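Continuing the batch. This is chain 6 of the set; chains 1 through 5 are on the previous pages. Same settings as before, nothing changed between runs. Recording input and output for traceability.
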Amino acid sequence: MGGAAPIRCHGWAPGWLSLSWSSLALFDTLAALFLIRGERRGTDLACAIVATDLAADWYAVYGIQHGSLAAQPGLQRLTVFAALVLGTAPFIRRHLTP
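Output for chain 6:
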């Protein structure tokens, strides 16, 4: 009938959001492997990861917790990191194999 309950890292977050955060362990590792191998898809995947993670975190802070950026140092750091990744990716990507 009900099956297994979804695993939730954060009890306050919806299941899809917890799944998104949990999947980062797999996708971050995959992006790192592609980058180590010198493949462009590593930068593409890293950009997709950081963009979707940033969107999910902003949603969690503003949409669920009704917080603010000023009160969330983790979100501040992630926002700066995302800007760094997205801003440097085109330059790095040029030096990688297709």
